[in-house]
Amino acid sequence: MRVIITGATGFIGKYVVQGLLKEGATPIILTRSPQTAQKVFGSQIEAHAWNPEREPAPSEVLSSADAVIHLAGEGIANKRWSEKQKKKILESRVLGTRHLVSALNTLKGKKPSVLISASAIGFYGNRGNDLLTESSLLGNGFLSDVCSAWEDEAKKIDSSIRLVIPRIGIVLGREGGALAKLFPLFKLGGGGPVGSGNQYMSWIHVKDVAGMILFALKNKEVKGVMNAVAPHPVTNKEFSQALGKAVHRPAFMPAPAIAIKLAMGELSCLVLHSQKVLPEVAQKAGYKFQFEQIQGALDDLANHKPNRKISMASATH
């Protein structure tokens, strides 16, 4: 199976490529820098140049593929949200998806059978204790607007191509995401709840994100939106206690909401907003989580050494 992947050198993308290789599939990377991709994955990997915001994806590459996994987009937490950065976050998703979908729709002859196009649980907005499933309504705020526009572009795909939209939660891993920043703090004993600590965090281990994407790739019954979150969301207080336990340190240093807002600006919504999201579609389809409970996930990651380079040899055995 030949699978095109965008965002391959990102935090989640590396795990997806590794998973594809383990299953005997052939990943084909679309990237701004094929040289960087080959440094990460080895020179044997097939990588093609594509600037997602500026041009359609190359049709000669798309036409050779059985499936497409689209993960590319400016990191949400890379920088403070200035108006310029918010525009970059939005356009990297909307324009990239538009250019990919339009290229897929205009292919002559054989087309990939499935497009997996990422989104995020930011779609739901700040929802307190509400239980949220794939059928829950769009929320309010910048991230909700981004996710809605992002998904709308993906939905323009030709009806002959199965579309899956994983709404990805808070991804836990040592190589990126929130945990890469939190581990050092908690190891020093300086971690604790943020704000009230009662806000819900819909988390997922990075191995399960990759696992769910590969599951959706193979399972033809999975269509439309799929929440990529673990089945047991936790409050921020519970998360902090579990992380403290994983690194064998106390976790009682609270960070007041006002201090977080001053330090992070609008970006503070990532840690102060509450989303209690359930993976109803994936569970009904039969996906088996590697990490269902937060303590098991954090214990695993506390004992895991980050690996920023993927070994092609180890991935294929």
SSE layout:
Elements: E1 2-6, H1 11-22, E2 26-31, H2 34-41, E3 46-49, H3 59-62, E4 67-70, H4 83-105, E5 114-117, E6 119-120, E7 131-132, H5 142-154, E8 162-168, E9 170-172, H6 177-187, E10 200-201, E11 203-205, H7 206-218, E12 224-228, E13 234-235, H8 236-246, H9 257-264, H10 269-272, E14 276-277, H11 280-285, H12 294-302, H13 312-315
Parallel strand pairs: 1-2, 1-4, 2-3, 4-5, 5-8, 6-8, 7-14, 8-12, 9-11
Antiparallel strand pairs: 10-13
Helix pairs in contact: 1-7, 4-5, 8-12
Order of helices and strands: EHEHEHEHEEEHEEHEEHEEHHHEHHH
Counting helices, strands and paired strands, the structural category is alpha/beta
Q: How many helical elements?
A: 13
The CATH H-level homologous superfamily: NAD(P)-binding Rossmann-like Domain
Supply the CATH class: Alpha Beta
Percent strand equals 15-25%
N/C terminus separation: 17 Å
CATH architecture: 3-Layer(aba) Sandwich
Helix content: 25-40%
- The number of E-state strands comes to 14
* Domains (count): 1
Sequence stretches where pLDDT stays below 50 over 5 or more residues: 311-317
Give a short account of the largest sheet. 8 strands, parallel
